[in-house]
From TrEMBL:
CDD domains associated with the record: MDR1 (cd08267)
Name used for this protein in its record: Enoyl reductase (ER) domain-containing protein
GO molecular function, one term: oxidoreductase activity
Short name of any one Pfam family annotated for the protein: ADH_N
Length: 330
């Protein structure tokens, strides 16, 4: 592909939102020795993508450089392999998590590390696969690694609260928690109550009602774990609704979350708030892809946009009212 040009969408400075995205023609990237070049079929947008553009992760030197082609969660076909790639060949259908530092997803082609690429069975569509990496693995790992929730029927069932269950992470978290027969209470807006029940939630609260704001389970249950996918809820709201050893997994931690985390540790509190940041690995991509193939997990697709309208997809994600995942298709 050396010398070939491709269409891409990039930004060249912090800020600017959807208006800061520019449509450009740039050279198709070349895979390094352990990378695959993918002809992209779908990419999904995660809130972290536009938070990086806002400069929220500037202290972590993200993005690594400008101009930056955003988005990391993709599905596509292998178009070229680096000389040391062993597990993939040209023509393979795959799912991949691109590098957070360099992104690359809003384009016709992107390079992915072999270790963050997994085979995609033909039953799993590119859009379904592209939704999985960050959102699906955040849901899985928050449940299993932090909250100790089992995702199979032989596990000890727990009472779980998922906030913002209609969003990308929440919609996976509800489905995954139910694989383990856990009792799931969920919050979402009124328009999505039936939808979230359809994902398997046992009880659903409208977050704009007093009961929803208090996060109280209608059946009076206390929660062993909260998969907290929204923001702005103080510890004083969580404290009375947790079991003795209940844990809140905070996916959007701020200064106050880190203070609460430290305070709970220092005071040997049995109730905990744990800030969590996902690390995507190939094993996780394979695990979730298998669940989708087996019909045990669905990617809920809010909307699909062609690459030529990527700025509309970007604006929709920033707006914060998606039901499931927003997909861009080159
Ligand atoms: N730490 C990590 O590793 C990690 C990984 C992934 C995501 N995250 C973070 O987790 C958060 C969720 O991500 P996401 O991809 O799921 O976002 P998302 O898909 O954009 O979430 C949108 C959904 O949230 C709902 N919502 C908004 N405020 C709500 C509230 N107060 N109560 C209940 N529902 C509410 C909206 O419903 P309405 O339209 O009805 O308002 C909408 O359906 C983001 O802050 C993201 O940055 C963190």
């Amino acid at each position: 592909m050396a010398g070939k040009m491709m269409h891409a969408v990039q930004y060249d400075a912090y800020g600017g939102g959807a208006a800061g995205l520019k449509h450009v023609e740039v050279p198709v990237p070349s895979p390094k020795k352990n990378e695959v070049l993918l002809r992209l079929e779908a990419a999904s947008i995660n809130p972290v993508d536009w938070k990086i553009q806002k400069g929220v992760l500037r202290p972590l030197f993200l993005p690594r450089s400008f101009p930056h082609i955003p988005c990391t969660d993709v599905a596509g076909e292998v178009a070229e392999v680096g000389p040391q790639v062993k597990d993939f060949k040209v023509g393979d259908k795959v799912i991949a998590k691109l590098s957070t530092q360099y992104g690359g997803g809003l384009a016709e082609f992107a390079v992915a590390s072999e270790t963050l690429t997994a085979a995609r069975p033909s039953q799993v569509s590119p859009a379904e696969a592209a939704g999985l990496p960050i959102a699906g693995l955040t849901a899985r790992d928050a449940l299993t690694q932090i909250a100790g929730v089992k995702l199979h029927e032989t596990g000890q069932p727990k009472n779980i609260l998922v906030t913002a269950a209609s969003g990308g992470v929440g919609s996976y978290a509800v489905q995954l928690a139910k694989l383990g027969n856990n009792h799931v209470t969920a919050t979402c807006g009124a328009r999505n109550i039936d939808f979230v029940k359809g994902l398997g939630a046992d009880e659903v609260l409208d977050y704009k009602t007093p009961e929803g704001a208090a996060l109280r389970s209608p059946s009076g249950r206390k929660y062993d774990a909260v998969i907290h996918c929204t923001t702005g809820i103080p510890w004083s709201t969580f404290d009375p609704i947790l079991t003795e050893r209940g844990v809140v997994v905070d996916l959007t931690p701020n200064g106050s979350s880190f203070m609460t985390f430290a305070l709970k540790k220092l005071t040997f509190s049995k109730k905990q708030l744990v800030p969590f940041f996902v690390t995507v690995k190939r094993e996780g991509l394979e695990y979730l892809t298998q669940l989708v193939e087996d019909g045990k997990l669905k990617t809920i697709i809010d909307s699909k946009f062609p690459l030529s309208k990527a700025e509309d997809a970007w604006a929709k994600s920033i707006d914060g009212h998606a039901t499931g995942k927003i997909i861009v298709e080159p």
